[in-house]
């Protein structure tokens, strides 16, 4: 299903090679040109496809704010999707109109994003966090330790490249984190030996791939153009390479990608079931615990904000609500 771009008339036989690219192909091309993640690409293309199908395959140029609002309302009312999912669908449609169709219409600014519910995050105590990690071993223990010890998001951890680890400065550089921002966070001393061993293993895998005439890793288009041949250099390789090579869906070239997210998700869940009995624990729970424990340790909220990579301090303030002393430092009269 490609949804051809509008032309002035039907294409003549044999003119397929010169036909304009189909709409969804244009969406993919624009996303890749901007260096956006393949997960974003897949999500945006899927939402745009669903939007078109929901309106009997009419071209988006014939649709507008009313149809977008109706589509989002159906997601909320009929499909009961979360507010974050509604906002992702809206982001995909705004991308379509602004970046692909080059349409700036007044209704685009008036569409309101779904309000995210403010939930207090699940946080482990220090003893629970250490008990969970004690149930893990090997590479998954190391990755989970970085989520808790450095405050990394799941995909930030998996996407770490060799040059992002600085042992001399005890620092990890997160590149193109959420919102496209770079930031620095600490490298815990407790994982240094394991991380050095992981890099030795990753280099062994890389050298084996090079010997087979492979060894290239995916780089964003801009970097690939700027640093010719960099995709085979050691510093650009993933710290946590996958055990098997795979075919890049964008280029059809064989690469060694990073470990799949489900590997760590399953390992954390299994460890949590063995060690934490009364909480629903995910990989993101470890990041929540990192932030909360720093605040409990007396670090100021602006420092924690920078380590987490939050754009607004109000996002970080959610963790003040789960501190032992209460969000406002108020002591219960029952404890007086």
Characterization of the model:
- By secondary structure, the chain is mainly alpha-helical.
- It has helices at residues 23-33, 38-54, 65-77, 83-100, 106-110, 126-134, 138-150, 154-158, 192-211, 221-226, 261-275, 283-296, 301-308, 313-316, and strands at 165-166, 171-174, 183-186, 246-247, 254-255.
- The protein has 14 helices and five strands.
- The strands form two sheets. The chain has a three-stranded antiparallel sheet. Strands 4-5 form a two-stranded antiparallel ribbon.
- The chain folds into two domains: 19-110, Orthogonal Bundle (DNA polymerase, domain 1), CATH 1.10.150.130; 126-322, Intergrase catalytic core (hpI Integrase, Chain A).
- Strand 4 (246-247) and strand 5 form a beta hairpin.
Helix and strand topology:
Blueprint: H1 23-33, H2 38-54, H3 65-77, H4 83-100, H5 106-110, H6 126-134, H7 138-150, H8 154-158, E1 165-166, E2 171-174, E3 183-186, H9 192-211, H10 221-226, E4 246-247, E5 254-255, H11 261-275, H12 283-296, H13 301-308, H14 313-316
Antiparallel strand pairs: 1-2, 2-3, 4-5
Helix pairs in contact: 1-2, 2-4, 3-4, 6-11, 7-11, 7-12
